[in-house]
Amino acid sequence: MAPKATPTYTPAVAPPAKGKKGRQAKGPVSASSVAVASGKAFTKCPPPLPQAVCRFFASRTTFEPYPEALKIAAHFPDIAASVLREANCSLPLSFTCTVNDKGSVSRLGFDLHTPASVYTPYFALPITRLNKAFPVSNSPWELFKPIPN
Questions:
Q1: pLDDT tens, position by position, 103-124
Q2: CB 86 within 8 A of CB 79
Q3: I need a labelling partner for 49 at 20 to 30 A (CA). Which of 6, 26, 41, 146 fits?
Q4: Which residues contact 97 (CB under 8 A, 6 or more apart)?
Q5: Residue 115: CB partners within 8 Å, gap ≥ 6?
Q6: pLDDT at position 57 over 90
Q7: Tens digits of per-residue pLDDT, 16-28?
Q8: In terms of pTM, does the model score above 0.70?
Q9: Whether the Cβ atoms of residue 115 and residue 92 lie closer than 8 Å to each other
Q10: Is 121 helix (H, G, I), strand (E, B) or coil?
């Protein structure tokens, strides 16, 4: 009985291919050169929008600081996302929130390719929940507005 051939674990590397007239072929081919050669060039995604275009805010009827500003900044992004989810909003639902010293709430979407203007139909919903969650009887928050550019 003849012994079985034992497999070797050395990498199988083919010798470099020879081009015309004995020259060696160029190194590895990039994906972009293959795509261009096949007629399907890659398209780059558009650059992100400026943050001012993606931000919207709600001011109060009188400008005064809100005592629980950090609480709003921590909880309002989740409140706004749940309100928009309940309204079957198909837009991105990730936000950051800040409250300035005048008591205005600003929201910035994480997706910097989505302008704030597309959220316009939903501006009244989160503000209602904001006024219920953080009541300010003498100076409630007004509707959200895009930040003017």
A1: 888 877 777 788 888 888 888 8
A2: no
A3: 41
A4: 72, 73, 76, 77, 80, 105, 106, 107, 108
A5: 49, 53, 54, 146
A6: no
A7: 555 556 555 566 6
A8: no
A9: no
A10: helix
Asked whether the beta carbons of 63 and 112 are under 8 A apart, the reply is no
Task: Identify any residues that bridge with 107 across adjacent strands, giving them in sequence order.
Answer: 56, 97
What's the distance, CA 34 to chain centroid?
A: 30
- Whole-angstrom CA distances from 74 to 62, 79, 104 are 23, 10, 15
Q: What is the mean pLDDT of the chain?
A: 76
Q: What are the residue boundaries of the structural domains of the chain, listed by start?
A: 51-146
Q: How far apart are CA 97 and CA 78, in angstroms?
A: 10
What is the token pair recorded at 55?
Answer: 């931000």
Q: Using CA atoms in the order 77, 125, 102, 93, what is the torsion angle rounded to 10 degrees?
A: 30
Spatial separation of the C-alpha atoms in residues 76 and 130, rounded to whole Å: 7
CB burial of residue 125 (10 Å; 0-12, 13-18, 19+): middle
pLDDT tens string 133-142? 888 777 888 8
**Exposed, middle or buried: residue 85 (CB in 10 Å: 0-12, 13-18, 19+)?**
exposed
CA–CA dist 144, 60 (Å, integer): 10
